[in-house]
Amino acid sequence: MDPRITTNTLPQGQVPTVRAAGEGRDAGALINANFETFLRMLTTQLENQDPQNPMDSSEFAAQLATFSGVEQQVRTNALLEDLVARSQAVGLSDFAGWVGMEARSAARHHFDGTAVQVTPPFVPNVERAELVIADLSGNEVGRMDLPNDGAPVTWLGTGTKGAVLPRGDYAFSVRGYRGGTAVSSLPVETWGRVAEVRQSDAGPLLVLEGGAQVLAGDVTAVRKP
What we know:
- The chain is an alpha+beta fold.
- It has two helices and 14 strands, in the order ββααββββββββββββ.
- The chain has helices spanning 27-47, 57-95, and strands at 2-5, 18-21, 102-105, 109-111, 116-119, 128-134, 140-146, 153-155, 168-178, 181-187, 189-200, 203-208, 213-215, 221-223.
- Strands 3, 5, 8, 11, 12, 13 and 14 form a seven-stranded antiparallel sheet that branches.
- Helix 1 runs antiparallel to helix 2 (57-95).
- It starts with a strand and ends with a strand.
- Residues 1-25 have low confidence and may be disordered.
């Protein structure tokens, strides 16, 4: 908040107080300007106080300490804001070179009609594994048997009926079966081209072509297209 000294005439023996000003001002500059005003007001009041009822020096000391504390807090906040801004800028610059590159992650993939390379993880303790394709609503739209060896495979874009699915965003997972029953489901990573890098509360955020977003920390590999 922006501290400001109120300069109204005060009753005899009353010490001026620091009050909050309206938003949208430079708090640091305002404090520096008001500190001199604060001291002048106190000096004037000391010179004109009633000799029979002098101002309590402890009140003066308390007001001065309060003002100094507010000033220090504002300066500390400004320093912290500057440090945060600098760290965010450094984080973004570190990932600026990723724009135009392909990043591998478990984010949804934008299917544009061409084959998609997926990297399903190895699923332990299962008899069979298959790739499951789901649309943005979470509806299953396709399946594909997997060798379950952790090697990349290519999905041609076909759905459960063998026809090529419409263009759009899809999520992939690998489902493991034992005794004919699904016992596990793990996310599958795909490659997506990085269109933009943004800053977020959780760190640098990559925006992939098609609009999918993934934190830079969740990317497991980067390559040239």
